[in-house]
Write a structure and sequence with these properties.
By secondary structure, the chain is mainly alpha-helical. The chain folds into 7 domains: about 90 residues, Arc Repressor Mutant, subunit A, CATH 1.10.10.10; about 140 residues, Serine Threonine Protein Phosphatase 5, Tetratricopeptide repeat; about 150 residues, P-loop containing nucleotide triphosphate hydrolases (Rossmann fold, 3-Layer(aba) Sandwich); about 80 residues; about 70 residues, Arc Repressor Mutant, subunit A; about 120 residues, no CATH class; about 130 residues, Tetratricopeptide repeat domain (Serine Threonine Protein Phosphatase 5, Tetratricopeptide repeat). The protein has 43 helices and 14 strands. The longest helix is centred in the middle third of the chain and has 26 residues.
Length: about 950
Amino acid sequence: MTGDPGDRFLILGPLSVWRDGVEVELGPPQQQALLAVLLARAGRPVMMTEIIDVIWGEHPPSTVVNVIQRYISRLRRVLPVDALVRCAGGYRLNLDADRVDLLVFRRRLAAAAEAAADDPDGALELLMKGLGLWYGQVAASVSHVIREAPIFAEVNGEYVSAVLRAADLALVTGNSERVLPVLRGATALAPFDESLQAALLRTLAAADRPAEALTQYDAFRRRLADELGVGPGPALAAAHHEILCAAPVVPASLPDRPPSGGRPAVTSVPVRPAQLPADLPTFAGRSDSLDRVTGYLGGSASTARLVAISGMGGIGKTTLAVHCAHRLAAVFPDGQLYVNMRAFDPSGVALKPQDAIRSFLNALGLAEEQLPASFEAQVALYRSLIAGRRMIVVVDNARDAQSARPLLPGAPGSAAIVTSRDPLVGLVVQEGVLPIVLGLLADEEAEAVLDHRLGPGRLAAEPDAVREVISFCAGIPLALAIFAARAALHPQFTLRHLVAELNVRRLDSFEQADGDPDLRAVFSWSYEQLGADAARLFRLLALHPGHTFGAAAAASLLGADPGQGRALLGELSRANLLSECEPGRFRIHDLVRSYSAELAHLDGPAAQRESSQRLLDHYLFSSLAALALRDPEQIHRARAPVLRPVPDVTVESFAERGSASTWLTNERRTLLAMINLAVALGADTHVWSLVSAMESMLRSYEYWADWKMTLYQALAAAERLEDATLQGIAHHALGYVHSEPMLNVPEDAERHLREAIRLCAGAGDLLTEAHAHRTLARQWRGRPAEREQFELALSLYHRVQACRPGSVPPDYFAYVYGQLGRYDTALDYALRAVRHLDQAGNHREATAWHTLATIQVGRGDVTAALAANDHAVHLCRRLGDEYAAARLLVGLGERLTVVGETTEARRSLSRALDILNRLSHPRAESVRATLRAMTAEPVSA
């Protein structure tokens, strides 16, 4: 809050601002209107869209955003420092509440409502002081067209409501004369408001002026007929009837007295319920959601404002809802209603809407004997009682839209927040509810939660332990709160000690001795609501090692068809045991997975093994299907023909090469885990096939560490299979990986390559033997033996070609002839290669064009080389593989450097660096260093 004792910000009448006791010039009319909008919503965000709607209506200028920003800049010069701040989607005006007449008015109204039951005289005094702040309609100096906007109409509505409450209290306390001037002023400001006219009639009658009351009624009746063509409504007619019959006058907002022998009349002032649970003093995080909820509910509307907060158990739905409701208490001074529907209570007994509506009616001051018999009539009475009042309703832990719908207010002025693990789609579609889906806390928000509960000093002392806690709790507020409570209760324990306990005890770490719900209990409430098939799928998901998965994987786990898999994932998502992270893909939280694993024993080891085998086959045959599109020449390496999936396995289908490549890349971590699963199941052929299916993707994207690890697993599987050919292939690939600059372990590279040559020669695998010689030549680059190895590779390629014509692709010959300096022959093979691969649209075609480019460099035709490499880069980009494009640019740049074409080399390397910088790739630094070594000119960071 900002402000100075001499500052005043007035909107209850003509708009004015006083700084240090001097009135400030507020600028042109639209700038004043903008300030009025911000003051009407002081302390709360106002969305840019609402500002535009209020000031410019349906036809704003094209430069409207710039105009608003200019007005904001000017207003900041006349307002206190930091008072006008930018927030998500709009602006917020933060001022000292004691300096804003509207906020002072609301505070006095809230205090009056609090005091009404015990001290009606004091409550009336507070109301009169609040009403004394008004000097006309809100923002009276602003254009009347703008003042018709809901944001100002609602503030005027607050004034009318306050006048009506003052009139009610005056009747109860016998102070009718005191409120007559206020009532007359209010009827002048709102000349056709029948509730004000009825209150004026009753007040005149109570002040022993029945004749004046009847005259007032007659004048108003004629005005209605003359100007609007209508007659008095029921409320005004009832007041008129009371005066004619000399009936005892009761406050207008209370139910009429029943006939003799009926239910007892209500004789107290309206009850102001305050049912909200206590706000959390250590609330932290969720700033975006908090601003969205408070900004939306505190805004203007022609209907009741409604918000639905959904999310998994323990994610903080109730905490956020209660915090928002407390923040909005001044906006809704007529009270707060709260009910816990207990939809996921462990007792299994949820609160029925019928019971909830009765509790609301009781809270609004009605005794049981005054309630209508039918549920529909009770709902209608509830909505009638809160119509015209500004109340906020919190419906917590609702099962679904149907259970929450009867409890929602129907008239403008009030608002409701509903929380549920169900997404409440029905309310969003039919009632236009604003959906707020709570995800996991970001790391900085999680740290703020710990900071509020443990203090910054304790966190600063053990930053590494704090990071581990945040990682383990993974954004679940309940987990963070339970951990923080344990740490606070045991200040003698280091956070490191408590983290070690987390890693050992998992969910047991979050047990609460006092019986309050812990994580396991919260998860169980959702689990117990599931159908049998969804519950079984939830238990089996513990077997899935990946962070995300789709319907085909879930269906394979369960042994069901994909349609059933999708339906069950939807059920789990609605129960918020899963989250749909992107269309068709789902994520399970690590702690939820721990709970799933605790339940896995219910299915028995045999069923778990069958599910694991189906899951393994799903990923193996899906990866083979992807490989067949991405790199069909590699499919023979995966030994696909000898494998068949077990029954009830769903295999992913891919429409084209791009989707297949994307799937392989996105599922990389899961496929790596599947290799471990295959090892555990003793499925060595699966191990080999999975590694082979991943090889081209791992090589293309240079996941060297992953590739090396999987190759050692493939080698071990080949040894267990006693297959010398597969062992030779694995040793060659390991030699290739160890020779790469990112790993560069020459002794391991040579050892594996020599072993590959030995095994392949013995097994008669001449093609892999040739590859091994070629890779060894690359490893020995610059040594005398380099040429000998290339010659051996070339000889073996020709032998293979002679035995099996067409089995050695021309680009293999092109590369080796080029390395031997026989450029004319190399060019012939390179041209054959690009013709052979024309329109293939894969990485092989791009590599063939790059090989052609390097050969043209050797021939001295730099122009042709640049054109060929540009085509290769273009192909990579069409494949969506920017890194491959950068790699080819680096390769050409290095080749151009060798032959002294420094200018073109630098240009090629610079293009590569631009791509690597965009990708934040670690190889960017080595390319940058190469460029710096080539010239002293500065290089872009």
